[in-house]
Structures are given as structure tokens and as C-alpha cells.
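Design a sequence for this backbone.
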């Protein structure tokens, strides 16, 4: 395995955490390159369940270097809690490094996220309210505060003063919210700074050196292609770039240094939060998938919206991220459904659409064109590809055909052992 990117090819929660953990066994370095603690990656190992948000899923191996790249937005309080919780369970964070260029989330980011969602009323995005959007907005506005600033008392004091004044004025005017004490926030963040300091490094150098030395680097995407700021269902997206291209900017790696890109897809589709979803099911099959697949958000506990597999979406993700392989997860969740449907195109008026449209107004009018497939029984104990029922193989072959991409890996349950490798990594 050379450097390998794992990206979500739908609306997030595809099982990236499970796959990262599985593939990390053969990797040396595991890197998060975007998003923040809006992510929720569940990993099951030896009857233990870990819910990772900011920390790369490679942390469960004692010998892997884990990196939080510059493209991640870091909430120090959430980060330190996550580390504490892991350490309480015997997982050490000593091999973890944070980029000195990552941007920091402050309480005003979370408050603005919360109040702006409230103000949008029924037009809300359905964010995780972790302050992700407002923090990235400050980054683009060029008033953000980075990890390297946090570590220099005078720099932090100066930048935080400007920000607290600005945000307090904004919060008062827009939401009649009293605002924050600069002194208290400064004191708190100076404390965080000392706790975070030992982890901080120029992580782009670490990654470059690792690749040059022939070590294997795994990039763990958060969210998914349709939540990408540019290529997702804008404005119902997150504020970062989960697609493979996001690795270059979010980790500081040149594109030629990236080897393979695996897109993770569920055998069906889910989405948390608002926005159009052409194959969404509102019937008992949707409810059945939600219950059997335990489709409830890791971060917010919200029930995930469930629907049939949408090959238009995955074909789009394959193009946008240049997928070299697809990993299909949760095939076991579809067990015992007599007839399974797959969307292979959209009908928009008289037109047939095979490439995912930009306009949400068009997308809302798109009607899925379905193909039907015979279902299958319990497959959760199968460990070899050619032992899978023919009906599963048919379903998978059709995915490969429409998406023009090989299926490299399958998952038939949450555990490491419930993984079927097809390609070598
Ligand atoms: P991520 O955000 O992409 O890492 O995905 P999540 O962790 O939010 O959601 C995936 C959920 O499905 C987690 O609870 C996993 O433990 C679980 N999971 C992953 N792969 C499989 C699978 O093949 N079958 C089943 N039944 N569960 C799986
Ligand atoms: P993982 O990494 C699923 C969704 C939110 C909302 C939108 C914007 O576990 O796949 P944000 O708080 O990011 O500004 O919210 O994005 N969202 C996710 N949905 N999985 C995630 O992460 C998500 N992270 C954000 O529900 O619709
Ligand atoms: Mg998740």
C-alpha cells in the first residue's frame, strides 16, 4: 500500500471509521484532513465500541502515528475530552500530532452556529452545532486563529481581542445575545494551549517525510462527497472538502504523492440533516433499514433518513474524487428484504439524467429510475467474496458497471472480522 485516501461517497456515515481502522493495520500513519468534531466514526474492536470525532481512527493501534491536519477545525475542549476518554479506556494518544496550521473553534463559533440555525427556522441546514461553519468562515475571512497562534500568548491575546469584540457586537445586534468575556476566554484558551502544546507539529513535514521514506499513509475522510462545500448539495453541506482533492489542501500533500482513493458507500443511502434526497424511503422499508442498520447519528443521535442505493451519486463521487476502488458497507443490513431497488438514473421532465445536477431545484424534481434486484439472506458470517449469494454478486456487479469503478472491499458487519478484501492494499 502506498498512500491511500478513504472518502465518503454519499452523505457521510458510510462506515469510514470501520474501514480506516481495518486498513490502518497495514498503514504507518493515519491522517484526518478536514472537518472537525461534527464527524462521528464508530469503530468496533473486541466487543468494545469507540466513537471517534476528531481523532483519527488509527489511534486504536498503539504503534500508528496519527495526525490531525491543517484542514481540520479543532475544538480544544472537545479534543481534550476525547483524549481523556480514550486514555481512560487504555488508549494512548502519545503518537498523535496536530498541525500548527489548523484553525481553532471558539465558543462564539458554536453560538453563531446554533443561533443562525434557529434564525433560519424551517430553512435550517440541520448542522451539528459544533461551530464548524462559522470557524471555516473566519478562516476564509482571514480572521481565524490557528494552533500556532494559540501557542503564543501575545498573538492569541491580540487576535482573540479583535474576534471577541467583533463577535460580541454581531451576536448582540443579530440575536440580542450578551456575548463573552474576553478575559475569561483568554484564560481558558491559554490553559488549553499548554495541554495541546506537546501534540503540535508541522504535520505536512511529517507526512512528506513518511511518504518519501516509503511508509504507508492513510488519509481518513470525514463527512462525504455530497456534503462537500463545492460538490455537495449546497447549501445543505458542511463547510469543508471531504472529497479526495481535500487531502492536498487539508494535509499539505501534493496530488502526485497520493496513490489510491477508495470511496466508501453503504449498500443503501442515508443522510442526516436537511436537503433533497431522491431515493429517500418514507415507508416501512425505510424504517426497517433504520432499525436494522442502527441508523441514528453518532454525534447528535438524530434518526438518519434512509433510502435505496443511488448509483447516480456514487458515479458522481467516483468522478469527482477519481476513485480507484469502492468499499461497500452494510450489505448485511439489506438481508431479508425480498426485493431491493437501485437508482440508476433520474428522470427530470422528459430528460434522463445520469450526472448529478448542481441545481437543488432540479434535484428536487428528479424522479429516480429504479432497477430491481432479488434480495438475500444472512451474510454476516461470510468472509470470502465467492461464497456470497449470487443475488449479492449481481447487485455489486451493477454498482461497478454504473460507477465504472471496481469494488475493492466489502463489509458485512461492524467488526474487523466482518470484512471481505477483494483487492490488495
Ligand atoms: P462513518 O462516519 O463513515 O465512520 O460511519 P459511522 O460510524 O457514523 O456509521 C456507520 C455505522 O455502521 C457504525 O455504527 C459502524 O459500526 C457500523 N458499520 C460499519 N460497517 C458496517 C457493516 O458492514 N454492517 C453493519 N451492520 N454495520 C456496520
Ligand atoms: P461523518 O464523518 C453525516 C451534516 C450535518 C448537516 C451538514 C452540516 O460521521 O460521516 P455541520 O455541522 O458540518 O456544519 O453540518 O452536514 N454532517 C454529517 N452528516 N456524517 C457526518 O460526518 C457529518 N458531518 C456533518 O448533519 O446536515
Ligand atoms: Mg459518522
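Sequence:
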Amino acid at each position: 500500500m502506498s498512500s491511500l485516501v478513504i472518502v465518503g461517497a454519499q452523505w457521510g456515515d458510510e462506515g469510514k471509521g470501520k474501514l480506516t481502522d481495518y486498513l490502518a493495520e497495514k498503514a504507518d500513519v493515519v491522517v484526518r484532513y478536514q472537518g472537525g468534531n461534527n464527524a462521528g466514526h464508530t469503530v468496533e474492536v473486541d466487543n468494545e465500541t469507540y466513537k471517534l470525532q476528531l481523532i483519527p481512527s488509527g489511534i486504536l493501534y498503539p504503534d500508528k502515528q496519527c495526525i490531525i491536519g491543517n484542514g481540520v477545525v479543532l475544538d480544544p475542549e472537545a479534543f481534550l475530552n476525547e483524549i481523556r476518554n480514550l486514555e481512560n479506556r487504555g488508549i494512548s494518544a502519545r503518537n498523535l500530532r496536530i498541525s500548527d496550521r489548523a484553525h481553532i473553534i471558539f465558543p462564539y463559533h458554536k453560538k453563531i452556529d446554533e443561533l443562525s440555525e434557529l434564525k433560519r427556522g424551517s430553512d435550517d441546514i440541520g448542522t451539528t452545532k459544533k461551530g464548524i461553519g462559522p470557524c471555516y468562515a473566519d478562516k476564509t475571512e482571514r480572521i481565524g486563529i490557528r494552533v500556532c497562534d494559540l501557542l503564543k500568548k501575545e498573538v492569541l491575546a491580540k487576535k482573540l481581542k479583535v474576534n471577541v469584540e467583533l463577535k460580541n457586537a454581531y451576536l448582540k445586534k443579530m440575536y440580542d445575545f450578551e456575548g463573552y468575556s474576553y478575559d475569561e476566554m483568554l484564560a481558558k484558551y491559554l490553559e488549553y494551549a499548554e495541554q495541546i502544546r506537546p501534540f503540535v507539529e508541522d504535520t505536512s513535514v511529517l507526512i512528506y517525510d513518511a511518504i518519501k521514506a516509503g511508509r504507508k499513509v492513510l488519509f481518513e475522510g470525514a463527512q462525504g462527497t455530497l456534503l462537500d462545500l463545492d460538490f455537495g448539495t449546497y447549501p445543505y453541506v458542511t463547510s469543508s472538502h471531504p472529497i479526495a482533492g481535500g487531502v492536498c489542501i487539508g494535509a499539505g500533500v501534493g496530488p502526485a504523492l497520493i496513490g489510491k482513493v477508495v470511496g466508501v458507500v453503504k449498500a443503501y443511502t442515508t443522510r442526516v440533516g436537511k436537503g433533497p434526497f431522491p431515493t429517500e424511503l418514507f415507508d416501512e422499508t425505510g424504517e426497517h433499514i433504520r432499525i436494522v442498520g442502527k441508523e441514528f447519528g453518532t454525534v447528535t443521535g438524530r434518526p438518519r433518513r434512509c433510502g435505496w442505493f443511488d448509483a447516480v451519486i456514487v458515479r458522481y463521487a467516483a468522478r469527482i474524487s477519481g476513485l480507484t476502488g469502492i468499499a461497500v458497507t452494510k450489505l448485511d443490513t439489506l438481508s431479508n428484504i425480498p426485493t431491493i431497488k437501485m437508482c440508476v438514473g433520474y428522470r427530470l421532465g422528459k430528460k434522463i439524467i445520469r450526472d448529478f445536477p448542481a441545481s437543488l431545484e432540479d434535484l428536487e424534481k428528479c424522479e429516480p429510475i429504479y432497477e430491481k434486484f432479488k434480495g438475500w439472506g444472512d451474510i454476516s458470517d461470510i468472509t470470502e467474496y465467492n461464497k456470497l449469494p449470487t443475488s449479492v454478486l449481481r447487485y455489486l456487479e451493477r454498482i461497478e458497471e454504473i460507477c465504472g469503478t471496481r469494488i475493492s472491499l466489502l463489509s458485512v458487519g461492524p467488526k474487523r472480522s466482518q470484512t471481505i478484501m477483494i483487492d490488495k492494499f
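The first strand starts at residue 4 and ends at 8.
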